[in-house]
Amino acid sequence: MCGEVSETRQNNESQVKVRMAACNSKNSNQRWTLSSSGELKHDNTGLCLDMGEGKAGQEVAAVKCTGLKQQIWEFDFYENGKESWRPSVP
User: Fold this and answer.
1) 18 within 8 A of 28, measured Cβ to Cβ
2) Total tally of structural domains belonging to the chain
3) Tens digit of pLDDT for each residue in 16-75?
4) How far apart are CA 26 and CA 45, in angstroms?
5) In this model, does residue 86 exceed pLDDT 90?
6) In the chain, what are the helix, strand and coil shares in percent, each to the nearest 5?
7) Residue 43: inside a domain, yes or no?
8) In principle, which of 2, 40, 63, 78 could form an S-S bond with 50, CB 3.0–4.6 Å?
C-alpha cells in the first residue's frame, strides 16, 4: 500500500488527507521524497507527511513543512550512502 494525496484537494487547504491505496508507479499522487532531515515531502504539492498528535487511529495528513517533530520520520533501513539521514528523534 502507498500513501496517496487526494486529487481533489483545493489550493487553499492547509491540511490534505492522505489515504492508503494500492501502489501504482504511474500515479504521481503517490510519490514522496525523503529529505536528509527526515521529512517526507509529497512530490506534487511540496507538503510534508504529518502524524498530528500521533494518537492511535489518528489519520496522517500532508501539511506545510515546518520541521516540527511530527513531520520527522525514522525508518529501519536506509539506502547505502544515506545511513546518516536517520534523524535523532527524542
Assistant:
1) no
2) 1
3) 889 999 999 999 999 999 988 899 999 999 999 999 887 888 888 999 999 899 999 988
4) 16
5) no
6) 10, 30, 60
7) yes
8) 63
